[in-house]
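REQUEST FORM: STRUCTURE PREDICTION
Request ID: SP-0412
Submitted by: Lab K.M.
Chain count: 1
Length (residues): 253
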Amino acid sequence: MQISGGSALVVGGAGGLGEATVRRLHEAGARVVVADLADDKGKALEDELGVRYVRTDATDEASVRAAIGEALAAGPLRVSVDVHGGPATGGRLVGRDGEPLDLDGFRRTLEVYLVGVFNVMRLAAAAMAGQEPSGESRGVIVNTASIAAYEGQIGQLPYAAAKGGVAAMTLVAARDLSPSGVRVVTIAPGTFLTPAYGKAGDQLEGYWGPQVPHPKRMGRSPEYAALVQHICENDYLNGEVIRLDGALRFPPK
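STATUS: Completed
RESULT:
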């Protein structure tokens, strides 16, 4: 599928992985809409690159529809990438005090990390389905899970459940959308070093880097973005969850 000339929606596009993706798709000729809640970073990207920033809550239907509308105004929606984040609760299923994990916190984590992804995916897919194809596809949806979907660590149950749900939706969504020519692929990143960590980045690199089999470092945002571009351009990638983790497997904690 050709990226150039079409529009691309990047939900969470002001964050580390998202910003790298915005830059990569912009360089490839896409008319990019940055959908995020980080106004300062989003507007800075808009000023620097000439992309469009739209304040967007991934869990809100009207908000996502507005962002998709901006993308469609710029050209046919060929690419939707969802890499948004948000608050996540954690803790052991039963704490040392004997109390069970908070139910409301579990629900909130699923709302952000699973329901939000579903909301973006369904609305983007509907927008893509009525378009003329580009090559063999009308569009491609790239979601973001985590290796925690497979090896969630102690205390990560809500996050692992949400990311596991994103991974599980991938093949079903791809099958559902196959008559429309819309592909669905999920990336499951390992430990990635993003600007959000700030000064703590060196400490994290020192901890996680030696645990990655090869290369012995944390991932870099441009590596995520490069995989997004390849997924867009390779029409035979569909219904797959791709681990991007240097062969890392999370230990229990």
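NOTES: The domain at 7-244 is CATH 3.40.50.720 (Rossmann fold).
Reviewed by: T.R.
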